[in-house]
């Protein structure tokens, strides 16, 4: 293994990454592709943490005329071998670079303030042109933006004004980079001020990206394509490159060859099957890619111990609002499809890219589309009819499956905590097996299974319902007699009840009764009641519970 190089965890500044010798997975041929394709306004939509901000920083460092040659930063990288046709663009342009990923405030006032701060930072970054601005009124306006003293309405055309000032000074049109444009929109939707924020973003975009003679070309990145009618009104020059497009796929995320090279460099080639299972599975156009954030975090975790187990690193960085929303809003059919996905199968849904946050609950299809474009589902294959495009999609890997499972569990715990389960508890204490079975089946219909209806799924389900049984102690898999009963519920006082639950799973609905009796027989054979008897309980109820999918049957016997 070569000398350990630090991995750029959280480092999205290209210049810092290169100068401080972090490991860099070379994506510089993105520059060549952009120049070849000649899109005037390029919108790239990719999931969070797939290298968008680092790529934007790389583009800025390559194209920007900062007064110093950027060539040393790119020495040894792929773009340097492409010839003068591309290298002639190096250090040639004024660049406006805006990142909106920090606009996550809970009120419109605070979010707009942070937007003004970001714009002021960019005006101050270019303040060397102040003396080149011809008209005093324009210099005064420039200073108002730099000092955050401009009127609110002036911010609606602020970036266009800056591009005109730069064009007048450099005599060459600007390159404009807008990173994570949809973060303030997603935040505004969930915080309740979407209309105000979308109006501001729309106005800024229209002014700077539409019929602007000071624009050479623009790159905009985000997680979702927000409807053209909503944000990109009238932008006939907009070129959208989403995860369904074949172009540019290899520049966002790590390809198989890139991951193999990384793993080989750090002496971890033997771990390839493990991280393929956890972090691979995305298909951008026709490019198979890994989650780059998770790959570099995993490799970093192996610095001291190469046998470190993978973790769900992406789940700690991404907002899971959309997954939670899907679960909370879902009906029985959607819950069935989530079960299908969690168990490794795929579903087929129509694809609609031109949706807005306002549409999220308009139909079930929109919810699936949000999951697809934000990286919670991935393409298996595309199918087209005469009028519509359908996507066969699945959960990409174990890491994302973990997010579904934890989201489902958290939701179930919250929902269970809100329910009045007194009728269930009363039925358990009085031995009403029919009502117990009815209530359990009713609750099963509302849950999502991610264990393919194995016994541990039902064990967790029943424990979750019983845990809030007030004034009773709930024990799971505690040793008693010649084994461990599934669940024991007992009164703190030995004068109360001791209750034993044993769970069985039937392969057919017709086998439920037989499995119930097998559960009771196991309680008897293994003498599960012995611990309760030794403690002094005299009122002991034994329940055999059999499950088949969302149905159950309950039998009992008393001591």
TrEMBL record:
Organism: Candidatus Scybalocola faecigallinarum
Sections of the chain in a coiled coil: none
InterPro entries in UniProt: AAA-ATPase-like_dom, P-loop_NTPase, PDDEXK_9
Name this protein carries in UniProt: AAA family ATPase
Domain (AAA-ATPase-like): residue spans on this chain: 8-232
